[in-house]
């Protein structure tokens, strides 16, 4: 009986919004800064699936001397000099329980590893414009690797380590890297790692050497051969260990022909195919914000996700797609854009879009460092995208639902089955500067089922904001909303508000709790101009989420 009451009320609400008002204020028509719209969710079956720990971040090798366009934004954020004792850093990582961290970047292919078999002087990366990538060869000391792993253990990190793929190769006159990969030093490093009982989630080979490459390039045929060599090496070293790390490659920009050949030649050797995304252009570009807020520009990345998905679908490989590095704007990003509130529109749209094409993990450049870090390079304070990432991680479950929005092109909509209930979570991004959207939800080709229970318990204790916390009032359903806005409405602000309250760490360096506001599910969803809303519907169970 309760479900029937709810269903009648739901149908009345939908009809009232979209049928009764069609003559005067139809779907998508604006009046006094408002527009009505409809989210359409096909809950019959999932269109994709993501890893439980889909959200991933990177740590890079760049030294303080790394400067772009006259700005030096890296400070002490390198794997070699990052302050691992910073309390905010540790707390920020712990909140994800666990966070995947990909260790790598351009200079990983200039790094050698200090081990028992390689004990020559361990020198620091130094600027040298005559060298490839503008830096001399550097070294990861055994002591620093031990320190990093101690931090990873404390933070509950899943480590993906990018190995130097240029060892043993020569740079030809045409700029390509020729010859086979010399994995002698890498093998010694992996053996040391195993002897120390350090858990590695995945070993990745090389950085941005696919296709035309960055700085240099390796053919798909040679890279496939080297990846097979990596797999053989790892299998040999881990033969007596139950847990086997993933074999990951190539960690470069998507080139359709190159990737197809590479995947076809590694069908038995590869677990994860990684590609990188910097689709907004250079960090110095003056049109970054314009592109971030342009739905048509954002849609442009769908072609890459689709093509890689199709290559994998049509191949006998069992490898899965990851975004191994994505900073949006290359050459360290742009201060007060890629580390400010406005970038959450790009970032969350990327998470939603990539997931819809069955991308399993998405690694953000960076956790800290450059102008695109989730954390401030100097203070370690979370930038807005940190909170966006954390909310995604907590709310968006593994099953991806087909989702669309009718009413305005300025709303981006994504939905997943929820992590914390049998319901679903909807993400809405409003790219419009002036229009508030009133959104209702319709379900395509399936009838949702409402859960009946008097009390709901979660790992956190939500604080009531808009209405008293519901206590299972029969015949009523409530949803949880997380509204993200910029301080003072300034898109370039590095301060984010959740339901009108500033998010910031306390004096002990603790990450603030992210509390929802409760709203009666019969009310339309209100999405303010230039705002982001996560909507958790715990009581609506779709077939894809059962």
Short structural description:
The chain has 546 residues and is an alpha/beta fold.
Describe the structure.
The protein has 546 residues and is of the alpha/beta class. It folds into two domains: 34-48 and 405-444 and 476-545, Sandwich (Immunoglobulin-like); 50-400, Alpha-Beta Barrel (TIM Barrel). The protein contains eleven helices and 29 strands. It has helices spanning 2-20, 87-94, 142-155, 184-195, 220-237, 256-264, 288-292, 295-299, 302-313, 343-356, 384-395, and strands at 30-31, 34-42, 48-49, 55-59, 99-103, 111-113, 138-140, 157-163, 170-171, 177-178, 202-205, 246-253, 272-277, 281-282, 320-326, 329-330, 361-364, 396-406, 411-418, 424-430, 436-443, 449-450, 478-486, 496-498, 501-502, 517-520, 525-527, 532-537, 540-541. The strands form six sheets. Strands 1, 2, 3, 18, 19, 20, 21, 23, 24, 25, 26, 27 and 28 form a 13-stranded mixed β-sheet that branches. Helix 5 (220-237) crosses helix 6 and helix 6 (256-264) packs parallel to helix 9. 48% of the residues are buried. Keywords: Glycoprotein, Hydrolase, Lysosome, Membrane, Secreted, Signal. Pfam families: Glyco_hydro_79n. It is found in: Lysosome membrane; Secreted.
